[in-house]
């Protein structure tokens, strides 16, 4: 059974290695949890790769350069050097992937790199960005993030970004937004997604979503993709099991979200793991475990079919 994973941070790892003059090969570097070999082992059919420029460690004047470099790495190292990896330029490309191909989707996590220049956002669209998260955890010119104490919503610029996403069939990612910014996005976005967030009723963490937020995503037929990160599954946890993930899945199902559920692992951006799922190859184990609790049709939905049904035309 194939998998669509809506979030990883492999581009940041590859860029960091370049800056440190270390060579990492996307095909099989063990440091990369979503390398080609592991994606194949986990039967991942589509992987979303995030451009992420850490606003706490990269100077504002360098952020656009860093974002461009990560986009270049995506095209050169992930797509350009691997015949089996197919660049998803349009959403319809996912539907025509060959059985031995892996679709690669470019996304943006945090709009710091564009500053207040919407032409830079349009450039990222041209580079292939198909999903945009307005913030990471702090605030920026578009909105407040999930860990910004002020907890404000979208700015005028942030609203313009959402409207541009709508016009370009680009997803607007609500993971990492403050609660107020989440609701602003839900009012405006044609194509919202929670690419890597879990249920706050099960694990109290600012990166997780309250029930009313989950219900709003369900009502809008938006994907809700769970991060495979123990910190988001159990409070103050450094380890977790599939049983802990099942609590989040069951909870969203009780809210009516069975057809919204998927996975956005957050591999290459996390430091602890669910038992037996240390990287993309672990999806084989995960799906086998899920089939002990859910029907094959339900698991197929969680793995890939639900989001396939919800992508823009």
TrEMBL record:
Source organism superkingdom: Bacteria
Single GO molecular function: metallodipeptidase activity
Coiled coil: none
One Pfam family, short name: Peptidase_M19
Entry-linked InterPro entries: Metal_Hydrolase (IPR032466), Pept_M19 (IPR008257)
One GO BP annotation of this record: proteolysis
Name this protein carries in UniProt: Membrane dipeptidase (Peptidase family M19)
Origin species: Oceanobacillus oncorhynchi
